[in-house]
Amino acid sequence: MASDHPIINFSFPRTVATGIMTFLAKVLVCPVVRVLYAMRIKGGKNLRSIGRRGFITVSNHCLYGEPIFAGMTVWPRRLWYCAEQKNVERTYIGWLCRIMGAFGIPEDRPLSVTTPILKALKKKHVVHIYPEGVLYHRNQNIAPFFPGAFHFALAADVPVLPMTEVLHERKAWRIFPWLPPRVEYIIGKPLYPESYLKNSQSRKEAMKAFSEAVHAEMQNVIDENGGDCNLPGGQTPPKKTDKKNRHSS
Fold first, then answer.
1. Could you say which of 57, 90, 155, 162 has the lowest number of CB atoms within 10 Å?
2. 2: Cβ contacts below 8 Å, ≥ 6 apart
3. Higher model confidence: residue 110 or residue 214?
4. DSSP readout, 178-244?
């Protein structure tokens, strides 16, 4: 069933509401998140190097509630992030997800997200996408990427900024086993679409090369920073992914 809500709401009232809510989250929620995850954010200079233009951020999808990591990292920039359609449509929580910048991909018309995403990038906003398409809890072996994020980057001529979640064991698990893993959130260098277009025979080939380069960079960050592949409760991606059951996010 089609939603009554726009995929991304650019109206002035929504802009004001989102600004207020993200400020409150930054002041009240983010300090709790930093303590809860023993979180360290690294590579801020790579974020600043992009300037005020719009861009796409991508992360590995391995923890519940992780969109707040992206939001607190790029704040005060306006960030939109891709979420499951059913979550942004839930009566009791969907309104809050939308105010905080979430947008879903309609299953019956997935290409309908293209126009609002390109509009957001043109407005110099930030769009955050999880290109694995599925959350593999506590996973540190990144699943193959779907091409959506890189399609949008090529179409809008904007960089992709990888922001990698590196997970570590917690010493406190001996006493508090319910704590989440310790998180290093590492901002990599932005990758720009021009070089992939110049070195490819087609846009499809460029998109594939772009996707593979970002994937390799993020996996290297996990490996070089000691991401723990044996965390309790960790899920392993299937070797061969059924694309029919995943979004092209």
1. 90
2. 106, 108
3. 214
4. TSPPEEEEEE---B-SHHHHHT-SSHHHHHHHHHHHHHHHHHHHHHHTT--TT-TT-----SS--GG
Other Cβ atoms closer than 10 A to 204: 12
Instruction: Kindly state the average pLDDT of the residues 136-163.
Output: 96
The confidence score (pLDDT) of residue 149 equals 96
What pTM value is reported for the model?
0.91
Coil vs helix vs strand at 73? helix
Nearest to 120 by CA among 6, 4, 21: 6
pLDDT of residue 3: 59
Among 225, 160, 233, CA closest to 190: 160
HSE of 189, CA atoms in CB hemisphere, 13 A? 6
From its phi and psi, is residue 161 left (phi > 0), alpha (psi between -120 and 50) or beta?
beta
Work out whether the CA dihedral 165, 169, 172, 178 comes out positive or negative.
positive
Confidence of residue 1 (pLDDT cuts 50, 70, 90): very low
* pLDDT of residue 112 exceeding 60: yes
3-state secondary structure of 31: helix
